[in-house]
Write a structure and sequence with these properties.
Layout: E1 4-6, H1 8-18, H2 31-41, E2 44-45, H3 58-64, H4 69-77, E3 83-88, E4 90-95, H5 103-111, H6 117-125, H7 127-140, E5 143-144, H8 145-148, H9 163-174, E6 178-183, E7 187-191, H10 193-196, H11 199-202, H12 209-224, E8 226-227, H13 229-235, H14 243-252, E9 257-261, E10 268-270, E11 283-285, H15 296-303, E12 324-329, E13 332-342, E14 347-355, H16 363-377, E15 382-385, H17 392-398
Parallel strand pairs: 1-9, 14-15
Antiparallel strand pairs: 2-4, 3-4, 5-7, 6-7, 8-10, 9-10, 11-12, 12-13, 13-14
Length: 399
């Protein structure tokens, strides 16, 4: 039975604080601050869409302000990096300390368990190519898929990848390869884990599956503050099998506290160490792949808005736009803007701007300030608002 009851507003503030919102976004950001944020979040999703900025740069900007983008690149892909890449919540950047916690998933990929059946089957069928890729990388060091020169060119399937790319991605998912670095705009360079990962990480004992999954649930619970079982499962895309047992074990150990949240239909769980602030203040634009809103069911339950990714929706059927960033104003999502960066012209273009029903008279001015901040961070000189959406006119006036 729940030991406590939270109001919806209390739960929202707990969640925002757990995610790192409400901090000073004008303070200097260095390696320590960025590493600390990633430890707090546990994971940052990677995505290749670069209309405004690739999504993995945005969560830190939303929480810390205008930080040096090259700092993230150094932490993720530099020589002495504290992060690694794996399939956590989609393709992701994670603290190195979490690497052993995902070895059960690597084993599942190798064995073709669940969603990994196609990957394992392909690696079995093209074992000759997989062995050649591993031998080549062992001999020559980290390489891009294009440098391996194995297999046929792209023929559709797996996003049109070549056989060589499918091979190294499959080996990446099984843990036989890992990301050594990235090159140019977004090209992954693959290396052997024993050659790329620090020895204390690669040599760390592999925890049993149940222990590793409890570890991931702990990270998710801390990152969300208060969450339902579905929320906890979604954070690292955990399997349904065993989820109830793992959560029950954490409850029994006192590492999750059952609570009721007013207006939530499902039971919730509170991180015992979660902060309970009286208010959250600040203004931030959120990537559509931000940890705070990536689970759409939780977003609607928490903020009362339906956030949908419309990138793959035909243009004429889009409601809010192509690459839409919700605007978090204190404790509410009050607006959404469809953004595009015109780097040649030095302009951040607001292709559409829409207000939520509860947006206040102050929303246009606060949103304008955040757009100016983002433009400056991206190296763009001005912000231009197109006349689309019910907030466009007021936003243009505020700018």
């Amino acid at each position: 039975m729940p030991r406590d009851t939270l109001s919806a507003a209390e739960a929202r503030r707990i969640a925002l604080a757990a995610q790192g919102f409400g901090a000073d976004r004008d303070a200097a950001v260095g390696r320590r601050q960025l590493s600390k944020l990633t430890d707090r979040l546990g994971v940052i999703q990677i995505d290749s869409v670069n209309v405004v900025s690739r999504t993995h740069y945005l969560p830190a900007f939303s929480r810390l302000g205008a930080y040096p983008r090259e700092l993230l690149e150094d932490l993720a892909w530099g020589r002495k990096r504290p992060w690694f890449e794996y399939w956590a919540h989609e393709a992701s950047i994670l603290p190195l300390s979490a690497q052993p916690l995902f070895r059960w998933r690597m084993e599942d990929a190798q064995g073709g368990v669940g969603v990994w059946k196609g990957v394992a089957r392909f690696l079995r069928e093209r074992r000759d190519l997989a062995d050649r890729a591993l031998e080549t990388i062992a001999d020559r060091g980290p390489l891009a898929a294009s440098e391996l020169e194995i297999g046929r060119k792209g023929e559709g399937g797996w996003w049109g990848w070549s056989e060589g790319k499918r091979i190294v991605e499959g080996l990446f998912w099984t843990g036989a390869l890992t990301t050594a670095t990235r090159r140019g705009t977004f090209e992954r360079i693959y290396g052997l884990p024993e050659m790329v990962l620090p020895s204390d990480v690669h040599g760390a004992p592999t925890p049993p599956r149940d222990e590793a999954q409890r570890g991931l649930y702990r990270i998710a619970a801390r990152a969300m503050g208060v969450s339902t079982a579905k929320d906890l499962r979604d954070y690292f895309r955990m399997p349904v099998e065993g989820a109830k047992d793992r959560i029950a074990e954490l409850v029994e150990a006192g590492e999750l506290l059952p609570v009721a949240v007013q207006g939530w239909k499902e039971p919730a769980y509170l991180d015992p160490e979660a902060r309970r602030p009286r208010r959250i203040e600040g203004a931030s634009l959120l990537s559509p792949f931000d940890n705070l809103i990536w689970f759409r069911e939780r977003t609607e339950r928490m903020f009362g808005v339906r956030v949908r990714l419309e990138i793959y929706t035909p243009a004429e059927k889009r409601v809010h736009g192509y690459y839409v960033l919700p605007f978090l104003e204190d404790e509410a999502i009050t607006a959404r803007v469809d953004l595009k960066g015109d780097r040649k012209a030095g302009v951040l273009i607001v292709q559409a701007a829409h207000a939520e029903p509860w947006a206040s008279a102050a929303t246009p001015e606060r949103l304008a300030g955040e757009l100016r901040r983002m433009a400056g961070w991206l190296g763009l000189e001005t912000v231009r608002v197109e006349p689309r959406g019910d907030l466009a006119s007021a936003l243009a006036a505020a700018l």
